[in-house]
Write a structure and sequence with these properties.
It is built from one helix and nine strands. It is mainly beta. The chain has one domain: Immunoglobulin-like, CATH 2.60.40. The strands form two sheets. A five-stranded mixed sheet has the order 3-9-8-5-6, with no helix packed on it. A four-stranded mixed sheet has the order 2-1-4-7, with no helix packed on it. The longest helix has 16 residues. The protein binds copper (II) ion.
């Protein structure tokens, strides 16, 4: 029975790609703007640290070919074209380390294009 297996596989793929997470966003101006540069084969800076509660704007640019920024834990997935930065609004809510990576197969070193967004906990008075 190949069809049930196919449907199962399709459902699995759909649930992985549209995992239902949305980027928590905000209105008004950001508290902090972070520049992220994608190039063969790195994300610079690889670690982007933001404080919990901050209204963050990520401005992601590409220095060479088309890349994409994906932070699955924060519901972020945007294409990043040369000459066309991705501007992403993020409300930093839950402290943690959220892995980020390139989401466009851009060549040999694609798998090296990794990093993380780190939301640091607000210190309680
Ligand atoms: Cu890539």
């Amino acid at each position: 029975m190949a069809i049930p297996a196919l449907l199962l596989a399709l459902g699995l793929i759909l649930s992985m790609t549209s995992c239902g997470k949305r980027t928590p966003t905000y209105a008004g101006p950001p508290d902090t703007v972070r520049q992220i540069v994608m190039k063969k084969w790195e994300i610079d800076p690889a670690l982007v640290e933001v404080p919990q509660g901050a209204r963050v704007e990520l401005v992601v640019t590409s220095m060479d070919v088309e890349h994409g920024i994906a932070v699955p834990g924060l519901g972020i997935r945007e294409p990043v074209q040369p000459e066309h930065p991705a501007v992403i609004r993020l409300l930093a809510q839950t402290p943690g380390v959220y892995p980020m990576r390139c989401s466009v197969l851009c060549g040999r070193g694609h798998d090296k294009m990794t990093g993380a967004i780190v939301i640091t906990a607000r210190s309680t008075p």
